[in-house]
Design brief:
The complex is a heterodimer of chains A (119) and B (108). Chain A is 0% helix and 50% strand. Chain A is mainly beta. In chain A, the strands form 2 sheets. In chain A, strands 2, 4, 5, 6, 9, 10 and 11 form a 7-stranded mixed beta sheet that branches. In chain A, strands 1-3-8-7 form a 4-stranded antiparallel beta sheet, with no helix packed on it. Chain B has 108 residues and is mainly β. In chain B, 0% of the residues lie in helices and 49% in strands. In chain B, the strands form 2 sheets. In chain B, strands 2, 4, 5, 6, 9, 10 and 11 form a 7-stranded mixed beta sheet that branches. Classes of the chains: A mainly beta (119), B mainly beta (108).
Chain lengths: 119, 108
């Protein structure tokens, strides 16, 4: 079964750092586009970052320079390192994969992990 | 940045009725538009990709149409499980994708 499971969320003070993980099963993270998408409380979806199979990475302007996406192929796990966190980074963070439709859409999603940035 | 505007913000219908959801782009996105469904407390689910192609396992009552700047998601006959929030998403300048603000489909 294809599955993504996020972890690492929690309460963090402004300016702090947090690393989220997304463990994949049923497929390899290195063979697909892997993304992070977030959703602030009561709000819509916001794309955060993507890593290509070849290793290229891209970021939304709102997180560029503060967030770093990476993966560990040996652990089949995707990460996002979040530094200099702000209140506006408070959200549910989902990892997602383009499994079957190339660029067409993200068809595998994790259940999400909640990040709360507050003093 | 391409802005996607979804309308209406909220749509109130009864089971068995036809639902028509709109997504308008601030500039052409060709046919590079997807639709997602999200239920409370759940992750989004891909319904439609490239404007009109149903993802695997999506019932035939869901259909997508449009190109350029105007797109429509149609649910031909609403089932109780279809009441949710629906988002459109463009990928014309992949990987810098953007989502619409969502349409809430609620039971009348």
């Amino acid at each position: 079964e294809v599955q993504l499971v996020e972890s690492g969320g929690g309460l963090i003070q402004p300016g702090g750092s947090l690393r989220l993980s997304c463990a994949a099963s049923g497929f390899t993270v290195s063979s697909n586009y892997m993304s992070w998408v977030r959703q602030a409380p009561g709000k819509g979806l916001e794309w955060v970052s993507v890593i290509y199979a070849g290793g290229n990475t891209y970021y939304a302007d709102s997180v560029k320079g503060r967030f770093t996406i990476s993966r560990d192929n040996s652990k089949n796990t995707l990460y996002v390192q979040m530094n200099s966190l702000r209140a506006e980074d408070t959200a549910v963070y989902y990892c997602a994969s383009n499994q079957n439709y190339d660029y067409g859409g993200m068809d595998v999603w994790g259940q999400g992990t909640t990040v709360t940035v507050s003093s | 940045e391409i802005v996607l505007t979804q309308s209406p913000a909220t749509l109130s219908l009864s089971p068995g009725e036809r639902a028509t959801l709109s997504c308008r782009a601030s500039q052409s996105v060709s046919s590079y538009l997807a639709w997602y469904q999200q239920k409370p407390g759940q992750a989004p689910r891909l319904l439609i990709y490239d404007a009109s192609n149903r993802a695997t396992g999506i019932p035939a009552r869901f259909s997508g149409s449009g190109s350029g700047t105007d797109f429509t998601l149609t649910i031909s006959s609403l089932e109780p499980e279809d009441f949710a929030v629906y988002y459109c998403q463009q990928r014309i300048n992949w990987p810098l994708i953007t989502f619409g603000q969502g349409t809430r489909l609620e039971i009348k």
